[in-house]
Write a structure and sequence with these properties.
Blueprint (H helix, E strand, L loop, with lengths): L14 H14 L12 H8 L3 H13 L3 E4 L3 E4 L10 H19 L4 H13 L1
Antiparallel strand pairs: 1-2
Helix pairs in contact: 1-3, 2-3
Pfam families: GntR (PF00392)
Organism: Cellulomonas flavigena (strain ATCC 482 / DSM 20109 / BCRC 11376 / JCM 18109 / NBRC 3775 / NCIMB 8073 / NRS 134)
Protein name: Transcriptional regulator, GntR family
């Protein structure tokens, strides 16, 4: 996996959920495509300093959601239908808007949590 995953053990969000959410975000943003291989559970756990069971839970939930598939000999890969129709014009426009928002939020000096809080608030209106 050529994308970056990091965890914050001091966060109130469970670590397995942080891993799961980041993989989903990478798929949604197009940084991971169907067929892309994720690191083994043991390798990712070692890289992140986590117990293998924690990464295994994240992968299990990703598989149950249809985001990844585990295949013999190839390991865990992004599922063929993981994009779920995300190549539509509407999705592309939303992706561009999200990228523009992130650029503006970073330029304004917002933390990730502050930027996400603004998005969550906007989604509730």
């Amino acid at each position: 996996m050529s994308v970056h995953v990091e965890v914050d053990v001091t966060s109130g969000v469970p670590v397995y959920e942080q891993v799961r959410a980041q993989v989903v975000a990478h798929v949604a943003a197009g940084r991971l495509s169907p067929g892309d291989r994720l690191p083994t559970i043991r390798a990712l756990a070692t890289d992140l300093g986590l117990a293998p069971g924690t990464v295994a839970r994240a992968y299990r939930e990703l598989e149950q959601a249809g985001v990844v598939a585990t295949r013999r000999r190839t390991g865990t890969v992004v599922a063929d239908d993981a994009a779920g129709g995300q190549d539509s014009a509407a999705h592309s426009a939303a992706r561009r808007a999200a990228t523009a928002y992130v650029t503006a939020a970073r330029a304004a000096g917002l933390t990730t949590d502050e930027a996400l809080d603004l998005v969550r608030g906007a989604l509730l209106t």
